[in-house]
Design a protein that fits this description.
It contains 6 helices and 10 strands; from the N terminus they run E-H-E-E-H-E-H-E-E-H-E-H-E-E-E-H. The chain is α/β, with parallel strands linked by helices. The protein has a single domain, classed as DHBP synthase. The chain starts with a strand and ends in a 6-residue tail after the last helix. Keywords: ATP-binding, Cytoplasm, Nucleotide-binding, Nucleotidyltransferase, Transferase, tRNA processing.
């Protein structure tokens, strides 16, 4: 468990996490919504490690965290106007956007059928890490069907030695999952309401399907 609450310790902790990610290992990191368990998004074996740590199958693909707005430009074929509007309104923050990823990307996040869920978290530790690692495949740091972790200790209690490095940034600010919006159809569709409300979404893009 590596402390990220002190600036000096945080620098060393993030450096250790970067080395672990670059080596194909699985780590736990704090985000604004919940703690996440993640790995290099472009390493299929590392992503498999994330799924194994959670006890989760390929039928539930792993979302991707990015460290900047610009990163999404290289991950999708085309950024639609609703996508851009939601990014400008809620990133960094608790909104995951499901989009069609660029066909050229060499990654395997599970049975995603050409789509990917992408989010930019509002957390200094996560953003500093992502700036150095690039996009990471990150899911909530818990075993499937168990409560999501809001502290590093809760994540460790569930995931144990399946994770190489635990970054402890203290309790997360929000403590609820991100909202998920599917932007692969003609109209944005709410998949899960969480940190961002339906009312907030409709203020930005108008109609949002809820079925």
């Amino acid at each position: 468990m590596l402390d990220c609450t002190d600036p000096t310790d945080r620098s060393n902790a993030i450096a250790a996490a970067v080395r672990a990610v670059e080596g194909g290992s699985v780590i736990v990191l704090p985000t604004d919504t919940l703690y996440g368990v993640g790995a290099d998004a472009f390493s299929p074996s590392a992503v498999t490690g994330v799924l194994a740590a959670k006890g989760r199958g390929r039928d539930m693909p792993v979302p991707v965290l990015v460290g900047s707005w610009q990163t999404i430009e290289g991950l999708v074929s085309y950024v639609t106007p609703p996508t851009r509007a939601l990014i400008e309104a809620f990133w960094p923050g608790g909104l995951t956007l499901i989009v069609e990823h660029a066909p050229s990307l060499a990654w395997d996040l599970g049975d995603a059928r050409g789509t990917v869920g992408i989010r930019m978290p509002l957390h200094p530790v996560a953003l500093e890490l992502l700036e150095r690692t690039g996009p990471m495949a990150v899911s909530s740091a818990n075993r499937t069907s168990m409560p999501p972790a809001t502290t590093a200790q809760q994540a460790y209690d569930q995931l144990g030695e399946s994770v190489s490095v635990y970054l402890d940034g203290g309790p997360v600010p929000i403590g609820k999952p991100s909202t998920i919006v599917d932007l692969t159809g003609d109209v944005p569709r709410l998949v899960r309401e969480g940190a961002v409300t339906l009312a907030q979404l409709t203020e930005v893009v108008g109609v949002v399907e809820t079925r």
